[in-house]
User: Fold these one by one.
Assistant:
Number 1:
Amino acid sequence: MPHPEERPGGACLEGRTAPAPSVPSIGLARIFAAFLRIGCTSFGGGTAGWLYRDMVLKRGWIDEPTFLSDLALGQAIPGSIGVNLTVQIGQRLRGAAGAVAALVGLLAGPFAIMLGVGAAYAGFGEHRILQQMLDGVAAAVIGLTLATGLHSLRHSRPGVTGVMLAAATVVCVGVLRWPMLPVVAVLAPFGIALALIQPRRP
Amino acid sequence: MSEGIGGSLIALGLVFAPLSLLSFGGGNAVIAEIAQQSIAVHHWTSEREFADLFALSRAAPGPGSMLATLIGWKVAGTPGALIATLAYYLPSALLVFGAARVWGRWRGSRWHNAIERGLAPIAAGLFLSGGIVVLRSSPAGWPVWAAAIVTTAALLRWPRLHPVPLLLAGAALFGLLALGP
């Protein structure tokens, strides 16, 4: 079974064409409710995986090739992949209104939870044990972030120049803490130019 | 901090809206920059608070970077949370909405492939930078480094490990450490 989270590079999806989806008539309230549920239950990040399980496997609102095509675009465009997928799926289901219903649905639950979490933190954040536990959570999350970065780097088959480009990004942004915008503005044209002149690895 | 609430809201919008359009490959790509902006540039949080909010934003459900929401809340309460959330999610959502039609036509073209492949290593580098910056700003020192490295190794070895048990294990382990001597 193709699992969306194992395709962070998106490159493996190239060349696939999205077939015209058979759009079922689904009301805005149902779209909102479905995404509200996904937003509240997608623990641990990886919203794309939760969307896949719900939209493709459970409800069948979107077929798999369409989902994978949307996933590839969602990864190529900046922004949270889960949010980008949500906008595209909502758009397919019910046009612009569907996209708004899906996006608001996805974010409403976590937004409310964050307000509660913030208030709780303001009240109890100074407790030593709680701070220690948060350190533990942060360590695990950092591990997740690093593993995702390494995994997607390996998955994109970057070659020597790609690895150097990734390393340059890490040195500039991660080590030297230079502001990200100018770093990306300088490195992105390099990356695209290299990809243009280099033949694709099979 | 000397700025009024209106100034804070504007500052939140000005920080998060550009980051929305720079988060290649997902919210992890801009964590390093969010840390830099909220700790060093705007003094919205201390390093300690940033590490805590980062952990909280990930322990709760939702798409990755509800971190923006939490920082907005810390700066200016509910209006701050709302502004930061809109600024962080709306620009990229509009972009993907507009791009969905155009992109379909370009699929498979030379430029399309080059942009996808060319930005992939930079996105990966930004992910790694995010992890490194949060590690370095965490005041907890070597136990966090050790746990982060173990988690990374475990996930590379077993990519199908579910994140939630890992987060719980991290919380439980460090909580027990706090109870010790």
Note: Chain A has seven helices and no strands.
Number 2:
Amino acid sequence: MVNWPNFISQLFNGLVLGALLALISSGLTIIYGTLGVLNLAHGAMFMLGGYAGWVAYTYTGSFIVALVAGSLFVMLVGVVMERVIIRHFYARPHEDQLLVTFGLGIVFVETVRFFFGSLSQSVPAPPPLVGITPLGFMFYPTYRLALLGIVIVALIVLYLVLYRTRIGMIVRAGIEDSAMVDALGIDVYKVFMLVFGIGAMAAGFAGIVNAPVVSIAPDVGEAILVQTFVVVVIGGVGSFPGAVLGGLIAGEIISITSMFNPGYSYVMLFVAMTLVLVLRPYGLLGTAGRE
Amino acid sequence: MAHCQSPFARTLSRRAMLRQAALVTAGFSTLSSRFTSHAWAGDHPAIGTYPAGSSGDTVNIGAAVPRTGSYAVQGEDELKGWQLAVEHINSGDALIRAIAPKVTKGLLGKKVNLLAADSGAKPNQAVQEIQTFINQHKIVLMTGSTSSAVAVALNKFAQREKVLYVTGISGSNDTTGKDCVRYGFRQNFYGETAANAIGPLLVKQFGKNRKAAFMTPDYTYGHTVTKSVNDYLGKNAGWEMVTNQVSPLGTQDFSQYLTNIANSGAEFLINVNWGRDAVLSIQQAKQFGILPKMTLVVPYQIPFLAKETGAGLTAGVLAATDFWWTLQDKYPLAKMFVEAFDKKYGYKPEWGANNAYMSFAIWARMVSEAGSFYPPDIIKQYEKGETFPSTVGDVHFRKEDHQLVRPVVIVRGKKPSDMKNKEDYWEVLEVVPGEALMQKPDAFGCNLGDYT
């Protein structure tokens, strides 16, 4: 199956997959960078977004409403989670943080399973985006093309928030040194809450926009979580541009390898991660000393 | 370390000594109870959980079933089938007694109790759970698997622990082939019988020398089913496998695999993926325009497939399966089963539930006919190869590989407009008798191993 049309097709596939991974990973990386908490419930956030969107869609029949309602819902879950539970863990060892977020992830997944069962549920793509678009080298699902556009826009918005607003400046400062930000008289805990909400929302938003591609089930976030971690490690912990770069690299590795032998896609992904860890322990765009 | 000399330390050590004495006493009493139960069981020596597991008024069965992950939906259905079977055994229901006439209320005067744990379709997790059931509950039967990787692992484990195992859903040729064991039994159809049942129909309907793309999950089930189907179509009709897309269990985004298929020039998409993987790969094949351009074939049916993808995607699709509820029009026992299941759970059972129910019903038959919970006696009862009724007509076990000789059911997806009710997804085309579909007993390298 190694020929030019297939190569270009896979390159394109990698771009779409990579963009999605970039969006989810950026949420994980800014939370970890700012709060120092590795959120193992991030995959569950992705799943919750899908379900919240699906419920909203079922009631209203509008994809836009589903998108907005789902994102806001997951942001709210993130904020409540941070206020009620996570903030008590900032001063505790990393193992405790891992355990509590891992446990919360299970609670979210099983709660959804309790109410909605394990059957896959699908959210149809908006009518204008159903069908196939000829790209010259291949026919591509129209919605996946739109997905690429939607995710790029979301990443740009996230970039603008992080790099062009005062709050973004505080967040970035927090990533570098949260103790100093606190010392400068900024209420760092309010910022933490906000960051957690935004990070969760990025995953939730990705969960909804992905629902028409991969129909949702309670376990949908599990595999995504693993890939997201790899992306964050490759890109550099706490680095937003690193998450985007890491996402694209991961997407391309998975796609291109699968052209030769799909069985090795994930092997190659982990090989790449190992190489990065050996050659640049802080990731491609990461810097030493970030928590 | 002056503390060591303190009186406190001495009390501690005295306490430890007391504990040790208690242990020794307990050891003696266990030994002596072993001797008594040994005498009790007549000339049967203790083996596995026998006789401890069947010396009370209840016997336990342990099930490791996926309730999370890609096969969760099918696992829940299976679990319901086992639960119904246990309920029927304990109440002496007419359906159980049609299959196992010597069952009264309970089995050999004992109540049957089902224990279940979530395996996530992972072999090591399943083995750990069954180990716990053996240690803590002295189970007399183990079951579980919706993945042949689990079935193969539990097969080996059953043989090692000398506790009987009936498989849940397992489609790999290896389960009663190279990985067969004396202590394991399979009720359902598998790759080879599926291929030999659906193959002739494909050739008859679509002719010779066609091009097929395969989608294969990367473990024993996927590889053996793909091989059986490809061998049949290749040898008998010159079909060519233009690509085989192997994906890990639990894949969610199939775009890379589907891109390869779209560029392969195939006319048929033979999808061996299972559970949620099958649902997602079929939905995404539609998104990529591969369906309906290519003709979809499902050689090993997935419970709830049509419900999850929507009947629009399974319309016209040919599939081989173990059971479909409309067989109730043909077999009286199927009717009893479907009605009892529907009444209890409020939906029509899929083949996983039927397989689960039947495997317990058959076990109850073998135990009650043997008149003993002594595993080698039960195994020999299975190996007699007696013919008995089932929900798909008369069946019997093959003694050489512990595979049930049973028909394979060929179904075709109905168009949404042809469905008579919301669960009327498939039309039964053919019930192919099992005997001729099976390989020679030693063809897949089965060597059952010892009784004790």
Note: Chain B has 15 helices and 15 strands.
